[in-house]
Amino acid sequence: MKRTSLAASAALALAWAAQANAQSGELTLCWAAWDPANALVELSKDFEAQSGIKMNFEFVPWPNFADRILNELNSGGQLCDLLIGDSQWIGGAAENNWYVKLNDFFDKEGISMDDFAPATVYAYSTWPKGTPNYYALPAMGDANGWFYRKDWFAKPEIQAEFKEKYGRDLAEPKTQKELLEIAQFFQGKEIDGKTVYGASIFTERGSEGITMGATGALYAWGFKYENTPGKYDMEGAVNSPAAVEALEFYKELYKTATPPGYDNAYMEQSLDAFKSGQVAMAMNWFAFFPGLYADPNTGGDKIDFFVNPAQNVAASTLGGQGISVVANTDNMDGALAYIKWFANPDVQKKWWAAGGYSCHKAVLDDPNFVNTAPFAGDFLEAMGGVQDFWQEPAYAQLLLAMQERLHNYIVADQGTAQEALDGLIADWTEVFEDEGKL
Amino acid sequence: MTNPIDIAAKATPAPVARRLRGLSDRAIAWIFVAPTIFLLLAINIFPLIWTVRLSFTNYRANRPNEEVEWVGLRNYTRILTDDGIWATMQTTAHFLIWTIVLQVLIGFTLAWLINRKFKGNDLLTTLIVLPMMLSPAVVGNFWTFLYQPQIGLVNYMVELFTGTPASSFSMLGPGGLAPWSIIIVDTWMWTPFVMLICLAGLRSIPDYIYEAAEVDRASKWRQFWTITVPMVLPFLMLAVLFRGIENFKMFDMVNLLTGGGPGNETLLTSIDLKREAFEKWRTGYSSAYAIILFVTVFGLASIYVKALNKVKER
Fold it and tell me: Fewer beta carbons within 10 Å, N or C terminal of chain A?
């Protein structure tokens, strides 16, 4: 009897020890609080089951995401083992040794960057840009796109009125100027007994909103940050006549085709305006499109999507993020195991199915991909022409300067577009001089 | 009966008693004060000195590996010759002056009205002081809704009384209303504070002074200007000092309401400083900025306190 209970106790102790060992590893993944993050929580349950590592998540609302996480990294905190950080952070994160360089790990585990869409590898993983130095695995492809009220567009009386006014059918805009016409057409119109407005666009001042919105127009007009990549020669590029025209266009769109009081709006406000039936069209990140399509009131057959219209060139503002291992982690093996698991093509397929935007060619190159969601084709098209903001270590200074210049001109009616862009060059020059790059 | 001092002396452990017996009163006083002084030095004085030191460098807290250069007065020169920062100072001064003027006028009037005995006096006082009990974050958020052009109460009321369409203007948007909108909210929230201080001043005036004035047949108007105002003035000046210091560093409520916008119309120095320090991470530059603000507030407050003391001595 004694021997039996002893053996049972030993077995119990062993089982407990094994369990404790399996549970000893924990990982905290940090990201922004939004729909795809919830999808990742569900997806990560597979990883927990396979590895025995418990996953914790720290999701920060978008307006505070950069502040919160960059403070954490700056202070050498150990909150995050894994971080899905914004693409613009990669320069600073690489140079300040916040992220682990993943080249050796990728080589060892046979993870090839050739398996991911080139635009996403360039934007989310490399520093210096375009070099084969990888600090992240492309995790969440994203770009700024558009969606509209298909049911309103289809109304015969609206179709007739539009055709009479503009001499063409009311349909998804093919150019930025068509987009403006459609937005102005809907502005103040009565539909189903309610006054509606043209479009909800990004005008937010505090974080990155107005820059992300206005660059949608700037890129479409052919805006460039430098005349020669890597030379920081901005005169004539940033303030080119095309850039001035694009900025004037965005201001006109804001002044003549957005809801009243729409002077500090970003993702949430754009979604609210659309879901509450206020606007005919809205801009936002593709990441929100699955949720929009599933919305019981304004989704389904009432909504459709289109890529940012071209003007002089086809281009979209890049969103999205790569997943990185934070250098301060005390569970390096666990964090790398997660990256390895996440890079698996089968996991990437599940990621897309769950609502995340995979950047893996196994997903994107699938002939059936465009049929998997009503916005899948637009996503592919957008990712083919994405452009990103500066990814320099001083990106925050560069971004805040642009936020200020654009908001002052577009929303607060201060100065001209030319003055705004000339001023922006002066601000950026000062930053690059401080950085020793000019 | 045993002396309590003897009881305390007996209760003191022998080793402690032996050590204390050899110390002077002054030394014992220092022992008690030392922890507080140490904390003060560690928490207030040392960071201040460190900030002064950083203000002469190009240090960035987000780049710990970079070499820190001594830049002399460059940060100070840049700040003092920056038109943007002077504009921010003007915005802050506009906010400061108007909030104080309105709060003093309305706060004093309310205190004067409420300083009478009438039914429901206590309830009314409680209702008036409610706004200052709310968190600035809550106030910022719900005033954002009140100012919303389409569904907000403020625009609705303006339309109701003036016929101006509610959605034709935005209290927090472009058009020059935003600086006044934040003044309205701050006045709504903090007038009760000024009122309470004025009320304390009014209630500290002895009744016999008014009775003597009545005997001398002084009019109510004369009583107000020769008794009420001079005797409440030190309290009023104290309220102005508190509100001035608080509003000079105003951040939370305005940040929630406008974030400094539209453009830079409501960009107060505190919001600007936060951006420089914790968004652009120009630590050396923002240290110089903070020192300039500190010297400004400290200088103004010192002059003001001297004036306050003179008023009290009268």
Answer: N
Do residue A189 and residue A231 come from a single domain?
yes
Single pTM value for the model: 0.83
Question: A263–B148: do the CB atoms touch at under 8 Å?
Answer: no
Statement: residue A389 has pLDDT above 60: yes
For testing contact with chain A, the best of B62, B143, B144, B182 (most A CBs within 10 A): B62
Residue A1: band (very low, low, confident or very high) from pLDDT cuts 50, 70, 90? very low
| A201 and A137 part of one domain | no
Q: How confident is the model at residue A210 (pLDDT cuts 50, 70, 90)?
A: very high
Chain A residues within 8 A of B262 when measuring between CB atoms: 205, 263-264, 407, 411-412
Q: Are A337 and A17 in contact (CB under 8 A)?
A: no
Is residue A90 situated within a structural domain?
A: yes
- Specify whether A307 is located in the same domain as A323: no
Range of the domain at B189: 81-313
Say yes or no to pLDDT of A438 above 60: yes
Question: For residue A346, what is the domain's CATH number?
Answer: 3.40.190.10
Provide CB contacts within 8 A for A430, sequence distance 6+: none
Looking at the structure, do residues B164 and B242 belong to the same domain, yes or no?
yes
Residue A93 near residue A392 (C-beta atoms within 8 A): no
Task: Please check whether residue B236 is in contact with residue B104, taking contact to mean a CB–CB distance below 8 angstroms.
Answer: yes
- Does A12 have pLDDT greater than 70? no
pLDDT in tens, B94-138: 999 999 999 999 999 999 999 988 888 889 999 999 999 999 999
| Boundaries of domain holding A404 | 144-317+394-434
Do A49 and A194 fall within a single domain? no
What is the DSSP secondary-structure string of A146-176?
A: EEEEHHHHT-HHHHHHHHHHHSS---S-SBH
Q: Is the dihedral of CA A17, A18, A19, A20 positive or negative?
A: positive
Let me know whether B162 and B49 are in one domain. no
| CB-CB under 8 Å, A407 with B65 | no
Query: Which among A74, A396, A411 has the least Cβ separation from residue B263?
Result: A411
Q: How many domains does chain B have?
A: 2
Query: Angle, nearest 10°, between helix axes A345-354 and A35-51?
Result: 140
ipTM for the predicted complex:
0.75
Interface contact A404-B264, CB threshold 8 A: yes
Would residue A137 count as lying in a domain?
Answer: yes
Same structural domain, B146 and B13: no
Tokens describing residue A227: 């005349």
Query: What domain count does chain A have?
Result: 2
| pLDDT of the residue at A19 | 43
Judged by CB atoms closer than 8 Å, whether chains meet at B167 and A71 is answered as: no
